[in-house]
Amino acid sequence: MLGLTLGACTEEVDTPIPSDADSFAPTAEGTERSVVETDSAPEAVGPYSQAIQVGTRLYLAGQVALDPETGERVSGGIEEETRQVMENLGAVLEAAGFSFSDVVQAQVFLADLDDFEAMNQVYGSYFQDAPPPARATIQAAAIPLDALVEIMFIAEKSSTH
Protein backbone atom coordinates (compact mmCIF):
# COMPACT_ATOMS: atom_id res chain seq x y z
CA MET A 1 0.00 0.00 0.00
CA LEU A 2 1.02 3.55 -0.65
CA GLY A 3 0.71 5.96 2.25
CA LEU A 4 -0.01 9.54 1.28
CA THR A 5 0.54 12.33 3.78
CA LEU A 6 -1.09 15.70 3.18
CA GLY A 7 -0.60 18.03 6.10
CA ALA A 8 -1.91 16.17 9.14
CA CYS A 9 -4.05 13.78 7.07
CA THR A 10 -2.77 10.32 6.21
CA GLU A 11 -4.70 8.08 3.83
CA GLU A 12 -3.73 4.61 2.69
CA VAL A 13 -4.31 3.86 -0.97
CA ASP A 14 -4.61 0.31 -2.34
CA THR A 15 -3.39 1.28 -5.80
CA PRO A 16 -0.05 -0.36 -6.60
CA ILE A 17 2.65 1.77 -8.17
CA PRO A 18 3.54 0.31 -11.58
CA SER A 19 7.13 -0.77 -12.08
CA ASP A 20 6.98 0.43 -15.70
CA ALA A 21 7.19 4.25 -15.65
CA ASP A 22 5.55 4.57 -19.08
CA SER A 23 2.40 2.91 -17.81
CA PHE A 24 2.08 5.58 -15.12
CA ALA A 25 1.01 8.41 -17.41
CA PRO A 26 -1.26 11.26 -16.26
CA THR A 27 -3.78 10.58 -19.00
CA ALA A 28 -7.53 10.48 -19.10
CA GLU A 29 -9.00 7.17 -20.17
CA GLY A 30 -8.61 6.84 -23.92
CA THR A 31 -6.11 9.71 -24.20
CA GLU A 32 -2.92 8.72 -25.98
CA ARG A 33 0.51 9.75 -24.81
CA SER A 34 3.24 10.22 -27.40
CA VAL A 35 6.87 11.25 -27.44
CA VAL A 36 7.82 14.25 -29.58
CA GLU A 37 11.36 14.34 -30.97
CA THR A 38 13.01 16.52 -33.60
CA ASP A 39 16.52 16.90 -34.97
CA SER A 40 15.87 20.67 -35.11
CA ALA A 41 16.39 20.86 -31.34
CA PRO A 42 19.20 19.41 -29.22
CA GLU A 43 18.97 15.74 -28.31
CA ALA A 44 18.00 15.03 -24.73
CA VAL A 45 21.18 14.83 -22.63
CA GLY A 46 19.66 12.38 -20.16
CA PRO A 47 16.79 9.96 -19.67
CA TYR A 48 14.01 12.32 -20.75
CA SER A 49 12.10 13.30 -23.89
CA GLN A 50 12.14 16.64 -25.69
CA ALA A 51 8.36 16.69 -25.17
CA ILE A 52 5.42 14.46 -24.32
CA GLN A 53 2.02 15.05 -25.88
CA VAL A 54 -1.05 13.93 -23.97
CA GLY A 55 -4.22 14.63 -25.92
CA THR A 56 -4.25 18.34 -26.77
CA ARG A 57 -1.56 19.21 -24.21
CA LEU A 58 2.19 19.29 -24.84
CA TYR A 59 4.74 19.14 -22.00
CA LEU A 60 8.14 20.41 -23.16
CA ALA A 61 11.32 19.56 -21.29
CA GLY A 62 13.54 22.39 -20.19
CA GLN A 63 15.91 23.62 -22.88
CA VAL A 64 19.29 25.24 -22.45
CA ALA A 65 21.17 27.10 -25.17
CA LEU A 66 22.62 24.17 -27.08
CA ASP A 67 23.12 24.48 -30.81
CA PRO A 68 21.23 21.48 -32.27
CA GLU A 69 23.86 20.99 -34.99
CA THR A 70 26.97 21.02 -32.79
CA GLY A 71 25.58 20.07 -29.39
CA GLU A 72 27.64 22.91 -27.92
CA ARG A 73 26.34 25.73 -25.76
CA VAL A 74 26.12 29.03 -27.64
CA SER A 75 28.29 31.85 -26.37
CA GLY A 76 27.71 35.56 -26.11
CA GLY A 77 25.67 36.11 -22.96
CA ILE A 78 22.12 35.96 -21.73
CA GLU A 79 20.47 37.42 -24.85
CA GLU A 80 22.10 34.87 -27.16
CA GLU A 81 21.38 32.00 -24.78
CA THR A 82 17.74 33.03 -24.37
CA ARG A 83 17.32 33.32 -28.15
CA GLN A 84 18.78 29.83 -28.69
CA VAL A 85 16.58 28.37 -25.93
CA MET A 86 13.47 29.91 -27.50
CA GLU A 87 14.49 28.64 -30.97
CA ASN A 88 14.98 25.15 -29.52
CA LEU A 89 11.57 25.28 -27.82
CA GLY A 90 10.02 26.60 -31.04
CA ALA A 91 11.44 23.65 -32.99
CA VAL A 92 9.90 21.18 -30.54
CA LEU A 93 6.57 23.03 -30.60
CA GLU A 94 6.60 22.95 -34.41
CA ALA A 95 7.49 19.25 -34.54
CA ALA A 96 4.30 18.56 -32.55
CA GLY A 97 2.14 20.90 -34.65
CA PHE A 98 2.05 23.63 -31.98
CA SER A 99 3.24 27.24 -31.94
CA PHE A 100 4.21 29.88 -29.40
CA SER A 101 0.59 31.04 -29.39
CA ASP A 102 -0.35 27.64 -27.87
CA VAL A 103 1.99 28.03 -24.88
CA VAL A 104 -0.04 28.44 -21.68
CA GLN A 105 2.66 28.14 -19.02
CA ALA A 106 6.40 28.74 -18.82
CA GLN A 107 9.03 28.20 -16.17
CA VAL A 108 12.26 30.17 -16.46
CA PHE A 109 15.39 29.34 -14.50
CA LEU A 110 18.15 31.95 -14.43
CA ALA A 111 21.68 31.45 -13.14
CA ASP A 112 21.60 35.12 -12.10
CA LEU A 113 18.37 37.04 -11.50
CA ASP A 114 20.23 40.20 -12.53
CA ASP A 115 19.83 38.84 -16.10
CA PHE A 116 16.01 39.03 -15.81
CA GLU A 117 15.47 42.19 -17.89
CA ALA A 118 17.75 41.10 -20.74
CA MET A 119 16.18 37.62 -20.80
CA ASN A 120 12.70 39.12 -20.65
CA GLN A 121 13.31 41.32 -23.71
CA VAL A 122 14.26 38.34 -25.88
CA TYR A 123 11.63 36.02 -24.35
CA GLY A 124 8.84 38.56 -24.90
CA SER A 125 9.68 38.95 -28.59
CA TYR A 126 8.45 35.38 -29.18
CA PHE A 127 4.95 36.22 -27.94
CA GLN A 128 4.09 39.17 -30.18
CA ASP A 129 1.12 37.46 -31.89
CA ALA A 130 -0.64 36.10 -28.80
CA PRO A 131 -0.99 36.83 -25.11
CA PRO A 132 2.11 35.62 -23.26
CA PRO A 133 1.69 32.53 -21.10
CA ALA A 134 1.55 32.39 -17.33
CA ARG A 135 5.13 32.25 -16.08
CA ALA A 136 7.35 31.75 -13.07
CA THR A 137 10.96 32.93 -13.09
CA ILE A 138 13.48 31.94 -10.44
CA GLN A 139 17.20 32.06 -9.85
CA ALA A 140 18.57 28.53 -9.78
CA ALA A 141 21.59 27.47 -7.76
CA ALA A 142 22.94 25.73 -10.87
CA ILE A 143 21.69 24.99 -14.37
CA PRO A 144 22.95 21.98 -16.37
CA LEU A 145 26.03 22.59 -18.53
CA ASP A 146 26.66 25.90 -16.70
CA ALA A 147 23.95 27.54 -18.82
CA LEU A 148 22.73 31.03 -17.97
CA VAL A 149 19.05 30.19 -18.62
CA GLU A 150 16.75 27.17 -18.92
CA ILE A 151 13.11 27.42 -19.99
CA MET A 152 10.34 24.83 -20.09
CA PHE A 153 6.78 25.09 -21.45
CA ILE A 154 3.33 23.57 -21.32
CA ALA A 155 1.23 24.16 -24.43
CA GLU A 156 -2.44 23.49 -25.09
CA LYS A 157 -3.95 23.14 -28.55
CA SER A 158 -7.33 24.83 -28.55
CA SER A 159 -10.15 23.69 -30.83
CA THR A 160 -10.04 27.07 -32.63
CA HIS A 161 -6.61 26.40 -34.23
Provide the fold topology.
Layout: E1 2-6, E2 9-13, E3 33-36, E4 51-54, E5 57-63, H1 78-95, E6 103-110, H2 116-124, E7 134-139, E8 149-156
Parallel strand pairs: 6-7
Antiparallel strand pairs: 1-2, 3-4, 4-5, 5-8, 6-8
Helix pairs in contact: 1-2
Instruction: Please state the structural category.
Output: alpha+beta
C-alpha geometry = globular
Order of the strands making up the biggest sheet: 3-4-5-8-6-7
Helix content: 10-25%
User: What integer value in Å does the Rg equal?
Assistant: 18 Å
Supply the CATH class: Alpha Beta
> What's the rounded overall pLDDT mean?
85
User: Roughly what fraction of the amino acids lie in strands?
Assistant: 25-35%
Quickly count the domains: 1
The CATH topology: 60s Ribosomal Protein L30, Chain: A
In N-to-C order, the SSE pattern is EEEEEHEHEE
Cα separation of the termini: 44 Å
- CATH homologous superfamily annotation: RutC-like
Give a structural overview.
- The protein has one domain (30-156): 60s Ribosomal Protein L30, Chain: A (2-Layer Sandwich), CATH 3.30.1330.
- It is 17% helix and 29% strand.
- The chain is built from 2 helices and 8 strands, in the order E-E-E-E-E-H-E-H-E-E.
- The chain has helices spanning 78-95, 116-124, and strands spanning 2-6, 9-13, 33-36, 51-54, 57-63, 103-110, 134-139, 149-156.
- The strands form 2 sheets. A 6-stranded mixed beta sheet has the order 3-4-5-8-6-7, covered by helices on one side.
- Helix 1 (78-95) packs parallel to helix 2 (116-124).
- The radius of gyration is 18 Å and the shape is globular.
- The N and C termini lie far apart (44 Å).
- The model is unreliable at 1-25 (pLDDT under 50).
